[in-house]
Amino acid sequence: MLKVAIEKAGYEKRESKIREIAFEVKSGELLGLLGSNGAGKSTTIKTILGLLKEWKGTVTFENGTRYAYVPEQPVFYDSLTLWEHLELAAAATSLADEDWQEGAQDLIRYFQLENVMYHLPSSFSKGMRQKVMLITAFMLQPDVYIIDEPFLGLDPRATKDFLKLIEKERARGAAILMCTHVLDTAERVCDRFVLLSNGTLLAKGSLKEMREQSGLEIDSSLLDCVDTLMEQRV
């Protein structure tokens, strides 16, 4: 569904923030994008989304693939209500009313925001704003999700609800690239991982393969693997 082969990318012509990063996300797969602050995760996502001018390589979505992006920091228009934001997203993707309205209302109820459906998101809490971003993405039912730090601001119930929707979308065949620092949850829900360090690819593969690459025991956690691999790099 998505193939990434970035030779280099950055914000200025002679300054590359990331180099030699390659991976793919398959239909029905959840791939975790991992790394410490400054490792290059955000730059990688921006490159995939076509937001950087200074980059070399290839980013290929399968023919006809539609994707949705959920940013780490929710973005809203000050004068639009929650529902008006959904109407705008539907219009931008040329969805007819019958193709999104019922699903959007179901998602609003699912995330318990029906009482603020016609309120301005600028007045919402961090968790509520994050829910609106998730509702917008899930409502569109894209082929590929690119999700940046989805757990920030979500309470335990909302996190559980989000993960249930992720599983439902995977069963539908959607491919998901999820950037996260929450390694215990990533270990539980992701099929494979891509670990970045200092702007380059440090390791990738399943948990079993990460254990093999780090030289740890078969019962080692993802956190143990990441720590060991990063220490080995140093």
From TrEMBL:
Gene3D superfamilies per the UniProt record, alphabetical: P-loop containing nucleotide triphosphate hydrolases
Pfam families reported for this sequence: ABC_tran
GO MF: ATP binding; ATP hydrolysis activity
Keywords, comma-separated and alphabetical: ATP-binding, Nucleotide-binding, Transport
Start and end residues of each ABC transporter domain: 1-223
PROSITE patterns according to UniProt: ABC_TRANSPORTER_1, ABC_TRANSPORTER_2
InterPro entries: AAA+_ATPase, ABC_transporter-like_ATP-bd, ABC_transporter-like_CS, ABC_Transporter_VariousFunc, P-loop_NTPase
Domain of life: Bacteria
Protein name per Swiss-Prot or TrEMBL: ATP-binding cassette domain-containing protein
